[in-house]
Amino acid sequence: GQSLEQPSEVTAVEGAIVQINCTYQTSGFYGLSWYQQHDGGAPTFLSYNALDGLEETGRFSSFLSRSDSYGYLLLQELQMKDSASYFCAGGGPDIPTFGRGTSLIVHP
Amino acid sequence: DADVTQTPRNRITKTGKRIMLECSQTKGHDRMYWYRQDPGLGLRLIYYSFDVKDINKGEISDGYSVSRQAQAKFSLSLESAIPNQTALYFCATSEGGGTDTQYFGPGTRLTVL
Q1: Which among A42, A91, A95 has CB closest to B104?
Q2: Residues 6+ away with beta carbon under 8 Å from A4
Q3: pLDDT tens digits, A24-37
């Protein structure tokens, strides 16, 4: 099985950079995904890392290190609308397992 | 139109009642999933289906059942609802396996009194 650990809450100010970490333990692992969920809304896909390294999509970047069983989501130039929950998800061969989520609070 | 729809969006019911939550998708994917979300517990998998004839239990299937009526439709039932089933329920679909993007419906907020 898989388990993923991420901080429950992170706070930052508008315009700053924030990193949300995710460590995982798994008996089978194919990659790490990140999802964003605004309060009351549906989770939406942000990024996926199958290989070690950095993937960049606009203001968001995601990193994976398989040797360290670790990944992170980096959000740059934070905006108030980035206040949301962020979930890492470990992909097995058939189904993903989600972390418990990190609530990001962006202050003006 | 949304790719994944769920009905109802909100439901309040009483202990012991049978409840059905419905999900439809227009993405043409074979794989569909039902998740439950509770504060601080993330998304937990209830059931998943890889095609109409393939249904599997997830992490927390006790007290729930599902029906895959067609490629596009996947229903979740609570045979006898209890208060600790009060939660936000999401349906999702994906094209492929565990690493593929999950497309979520808008969710159903269920309250069991």
Answers
A1: A42
A2: A22, A23, A24, A25, A88, A89, A90, A97, A98, A99, A100
A3: 987 678 899 999 99
